[in-house]
Write a structure and sequence with these properties.
Elements (H helix, E strand, L loop, with lengths): L14 E5 L3 H13 L3 E5 L2 H8 L6 E5 L7 H11 L4 E5 L4 H9 L4 E4 L4 H14 L13 E3 L2 E4 L4 E3 L5 E2 L3 H11 L5 E2 L1 H7 L2 H4 L4 H14 L9 E4 L3 E4 L4 E2 L1
Parallel strand pairs: 1-2, 1-3, 3-4, 4-5
Antiparallel strand pairs: 6-7, 6-13, 7-8, 8-9, 10-12, 11-12
GO molecular function: DNA binding
Organism: Labrys miyagiensis
Keywords: DNA-binding, Phosphoprotein, Transcription, Transcription regulation, Two-component regulatory system
Length: 246
C-alpha cells in the first residue's frame, strides 16, 4: 500500500499539513505540493492531526470539511483558537453558505472540489506571502496607532488599549492593516482585495464582508453599530479613526 503520510522535509521549504481522508486526493495533493517546492504531511482525521501538531510545526493547513469523526468546520474553529497559521478549507460543498461558514470559523480561504491544483498552489503561495513566512523585501518598522490600539506590521500583532494582544487570522490582520494605511479613504471590496494581496489567493468578494465583520467584532465597542469601520453604500468601507505612526 502506498504511504501518503510524509514528504521528505527540507529546512528551507514551507511545511504544509493536509487533513484529508480520501487517499487518492491526498496522494495527488502530496505529489503536487512536492513538485512545487513544499514539504507535506498528510493526516486523515482531527485526532491524527492533533498528534502530528504536538510533534511538528507547520506553515499552513489544508483542511477537508467531510472527515470521519470531528468535521472540518469544528476543527477549523478549534485551530483558530490556538494558532494564526493560515487555513485553507477544501470541500465538495461549493455553495456560498458553506463557504461563508468556513470563513466565519476562521478559515483564510476556501477551495471547492473539483479544483485545479495549480490554482490551489497559487492560493497557498499567496497566503504564505501574506502571513510573512517569506522575508519581506522592504521592512516596515513603524507601529501604527488608532483610538488607543496599536498594530505592528512586522511582528503582525494587534494590541488593544489595555495592552492585551488580540488574536487575528491572516486575512483579518491584512484587512485592518490596509485600513490603517488608508484612513479616511473609502475602499471598495476590489481595492481591499488588491491591498491585501488577496487577488492572488482568489477568495470570493463576499469573503471581504465576512472578514470585516470579524474585525469589527474585535475592535468595535458595538460591532452591530460600527463607528471605526463604516459601510459606505455602493462604495465600500471607510476607516474613520486618526492613524499615527510611532
Amino acid at each position: 500500500m502506498t504511504d501518503f503520510t510524509h514528504v521528505r522535509a527540507h529546512p528551507s521549504r514551507a511545511r504544509i499539513l493536509l487533513v484529508e481522508d480520501d487517499r487518492e486526493i491526498a496522494g495527488m495533493l502530496r505529489d503536487s505540493l512536492s513538485e512545487h517546492g513544499f514539504d507535506a504531511v498528510v493526516t486523515q482525521s482531527g485526532l491524527e492531526m492533533d498528534r502530528v501538531l504536538r510533534k511538528q510545526d507547520f506553515d499552513l493547513v489544508i483542511l477537508d470539511v467531510m472527515l470521519p469523526g470531528e468535521n472540518g468546520f469544528a476543527i477549523c474553529r478549534r485551530l483558530r483558537l490556538e494558532t494564526q497559521m493560515p487555513i485553507i478549507m477544501l470541500t465538495a460543498m461549493g455553495g456560498d453558505t458553506d463557504r461563508i461558514i468556513g470563513l466565519e470559523f476562521g478559515a483564510d480561504d476556501y477551495v471547492a472540489k473539483p479544483f485545479n491544483s495549480r490554482e490551489l498552489i497559487a492560493r497557498i503561495r499567496g497566503l504564505l506571502r501574506r502571513a510573512a513566512y517569506a522575508t519581506p523585501s522592504v521592512p516596515r518598522p513603524e507601529i501604527l496607532t488608532f483610538a488607543g490600539w496599536r498594530i505592528n506590521p512586522v511582528a503582525r500583532q494587534l494590541t488593544d488599549p489595555d495592552g492585551v494582544h488580540i488574536s487575528m487570522t491572516t486575512a483579518e490582520f491584512d484587512l485592518l492593516l490596509a485600513f490603517c494605511e488608508n484612513p479616511g479613504r473609502v475602499l471598495s471590496r476590489e481595492q481591499l482585495l488588491s491591498l491585501t494581496h488577496a487577488g492572488l489567493a482568489g477568495p470570493v468578494e463576499r469573503s471581504v464582508d465576512v472578514h470585516i465583520s470579524r474585525v469589527r467584532q474585535k475592535i468595535e465597542p458595538e460591532p452591530k453599530e460600527p463607528v471605526m469601520i463604516k459601510t459606505v453604500r455602493l462604495g465600500g468601507y471607510l476607516f474613520t479613526p486618526t492613524v499615527e505612526r510611532v
